[in-house]
Task: structure prediction
Amino acid sequence: MRFLRALGRLWLVPVVLVAWEAATRLAEDIFFPPPTTIAARMHEMWFSGPAERLWLTDAALENIPTSVGRLFAGWLLAGVIGVVLGVMLGRSALLSRFIDPLVQFGRAIPPPALLPFFLALFSVGAQMQIATIVFGIVWPILLNSSDGARHVDRQHLETSTVFGLSRSQRLFWVILPSAMPKIFAGLRLSLSLALILMVISELVGSVNGIGFQLLDAQRSYDLPGVWGTIVVLGVLGYLLNSVFLVAERRVLSWHRGANRTT
Amino acid sequence: MTGRSLLDNRLLCGAIGIAGLFCVAELAGRTGLIDPIVFPLASTVVGRAVELAADGDFLADVVSTLGAWAAGLLLTVLIAVPVGFLLGTLPRVESALRPVLEFLRPIPSVALIPLALLLFSDRFDMKVAVIVYAAWWPVLINTMYGLRDVDPLAKETLRSFGFGPLAVLWRVSLPSTAPFIATGVRLAAAIALILAISAELLGGGSSGIGTFILESGSSTDALEYTVAATIWAGAIGVISNSLFTLAERRLFHWHLARTEGTR
Amino acid sequence: MLEISNLTHVYGGGPGAHHALGGIDLKVAQGELVCIVGPSGCGKSTLLRSIAGLLRPTGGTVTLGGKPVERTPDDLAVVFQDYSRSLFPWMSVGDNVALPLRRKGMDRPRRREAATEALEQVGLAGAAGKYPWQLSGGMQQRVSIARALAYRPALMLMDEPFGSVDAQTREDLEDLTLRVRSHHDMTILLITHDIDESVYVGDRVVVLSKAPATVAGDLRVDLPGPRDQITTRENPAFVHLRAEVGRLVRGMRNDPAVSS
Result:
């Protein structure tokens, strides 16, 4: 029943697709290929492989895991750096007073502007891409962690003082869990940013990856390929966000429960 | 006690922090810990940045980027706010459109640049188009979110005095949504700058900060100019963000007072 | 075991300074249950926070078991008024109770055993696996008490522990406190603004004056035990004591002996 209702809410999607198909067929503009053409091209590019490889083509197996691997490497690294630095800044007012302008400045630098710099520093390859991703996405994690760590309920802290928790016990059992909702908000934002930076870093300096395929299609005026790659990236973004939401709901079940009752 | 009060001065501490980073970077270069050829000296970069501030060509690039940025942001607001109001006041339209929007939203905006390069022959139009696509999400979502937050009692009060739906929209919904829209625009401004520079980096074109960074890549002291230009890009980001924050505080202090009070 | 002498505390400085404590002297013997009452805003919480080492008083001394309190003493536990902010919502009830025991070097099974035992004593035997926010307010405060019990402190401080629960639950928790106290050899300092409660629960009632707080009265409660919500409260001695404490709280009696 819930499934049917969910399907019912999607009624506009097929309508839009059919309208798009009809409009593009009528217009016959090479820049706007019909969705069926795009789908056929996508099938050809990624899903026409042998059955024992889940129909994935060589190009799909070569490019998609590479891109996703870089994305996760950058995201995890940024997560560790962002949470550690953020909690430090959140717990030490003095430190944050010294570092805050630097953080504000670093956050304001448009990350793509650093691409040529990282390109010169690391040359083409995974290192440069991961560096770009990390630099671009660490800020929301850092700012959210520091905000979360700064605003731990005073009574939670006093409780841990009264019951004599050590510094590390306090950190791991009180401060980090209490900051976790904020940290997750930062991680989610940075996951979608990581996808954007993955794409741009592959567009600028890469010899493989989904972004490289996009550039390749664009250079050879393969418009269905360009549209198809954009669709694949959209699906990837959608999947990443959905998986993250499921994980967040599990980890932060206490947060939702506690907020519902109080 | 004077030491204590000096440490309480945020401005001074921040300046010390920046100076500290500068000294560490400079020392690392001077002592050979980091090869100055790989990573230029901090003093050189700052010198180049000062040089750029007086460089007419670079300033023309900045103006070009800011032009596309401002045009894109303006167009974003003109499109996203009315659409946000439409979706926010007509829940049936909103629920029908929601899945379509949810499929479009995860598409990484920069992936549209290669397509936009093919679709638009004019570089400026191309930049504005990708800026609008990327920047319209925070404005749209904040507008819808803000509308949901409008106090129903205020609307009913006005309605009970015989005001029509348009008057209610104009006198209650718009003012109470305005702070949310402003927050959306502030976020959109940062995204617009990222997209403007990305489009310039990928599309080449005649002018822009991204183009400047790309073109200085071929000279021998490329890295110095690249980093110096990046510093200016960061400075523009800081300035824009502070201006928007300041404007928000000025215009909507009543809203801040209310939300702080309920916390 | 607890000795407070000439305790003063001033918040802030200059003309806007707030004098919360104006020289408090108090001695609590081992095993006593002392209730502290006073008008709201009189500095009761400041006193408790000074004893718990959460606040450094501007003057005077607090000694616990012969040692001056400078940081939070090891054998002290606090039951806060606001249970929802004192229990950790991200941990189960059992983990909340067991958390402080980590520091006593207990291993996992022993921590769990101690937590289960403490939860049994407060009548929450089956709740260890639940989260605090799944329980009612009164049950959450029981968890808070169980956490303090499992910690086996020499001194238990209770800061308006029953201030945010309904009347029925409040009576249950008062009786629970009395039961727990007779079971363990614990010294309890209970802060409340409820005059009836202070007389019903306490061995002694200490009345604080308005801020800057001083001890305005110190009465021994001699009521026959075991105490009972109905019979104790209709006992003439109870009624008399309650009136006396009430007069002290309102500052209607001027006793030269207690002015500091």
About this structure: The longest strand of chain C covers residues 18-28. Chain C has two domains: 2-75+154-258, 83-152. The beta strands of chain C are 2-11, 18-28, 33-37, 59-64, 67-68, 76-79, 155-159, 187-192, 204-208, 215-220. Residues 252-260 of chain C have pLDDT under 50 and may be disordered.
